[in-house]
Amino acid sequence: MIVASSTRPLDEMAVRTSFARFRIASIVEGIALLVLVAIMVMRYGVYGGEGLFTSTSATWDQISSVWSPIHGLIYMVYVILAFDLWMRMRWGLPRMLLLMFFGVVPVLSFFGERWTHQQVESDLSRRPTLQDQERPA
């Protein structure tokens, strides 16, 4: 007999572990994205034009060329951990797209992490888990 994924109990311990990893990745991604935005502002806004600070533009070009790939790697790890949480929670595709979007807009990952925490807690209290059978009545 095939059981639909929505009726199978969630593994609460695996979900909580997955969410803890996602939470750390959200915070790290949020900070990394803010650093990237600051670098881009310095590179193109403050030091990018012709004028007094033109000589330091090469410095910000160098910093940007180092930090951009690091941020890209951090975002990829964030997406992988979001995917892991999404799979364990068995959410729909729009939720995965939303989790990915949280890591693209500066500061949104911090709010997205809080929102995701509420969704995880709500789903764990509402949906059956493997650990429900182990708890005393």
Automatic annotation (TrEMBL):
Domain DUF3817: 20-117
InterPro entries according to UniProt: DUF3817_TM
Localization per record: Cell membrane
Keyword Signal: no
Main location: membrane
Keyword check for Membrane: yes
Entry's transmembrane regions: 24-46, 66-86, 93-112
Protein name: DUF3817 domain-containing protein
